[in-house]
Amino acid sequence: MNRIVILLFSVLLLQACGTTKVERQAERTFKGDWTLTDISYPGSSGFVDVKLFQDAKTNCFRGSNWSFVSNNNQGQYILSGANCEQEVREIVWTVEETDKNTGLYYFTLKVLKDGQKARFVKTGFKLRLTQLSESNMIWEQTVSFEGKPFVIRMDFIKNNY
């Protein structure tokens, strides 16, 4: 009897920790090669130049190429632009549905450096996935600037080779 209860509890726990069908579909839509076409700051006035993902300034990210593999949630990106380090950056990513009523998703990104394993990387970046289709997606990240929320918006288009 105890074994049955433990087995049933284990199965329920595994189901609760797994991704939902909607999350898996979003991850499959991510699959492929994308180009970051624009970075903007909704609600901001004036010139802003921030460092994204503790890596480089926004001018290096405009036109950068991103590749996402859905079966293992890994990928990479390569910066573009003059005076930008153009080596491959390895990433690990996940999509989480946070509100079933609004369909709002969050996207978590970890940048791996020098062959790091994802489980040893303690820092990552949480972004809102405000739009995702077969041809484009939009990420938004809210950071603190001068003690106030500040939104960074990144627009991507999917590359069709």
UniProtKB/TrEMBL annotation:
PROSITE patterns: PROKAR_LIPOPROTEIN (PS51257). It comes from the Bacteria. This is Lipocalin family protein.
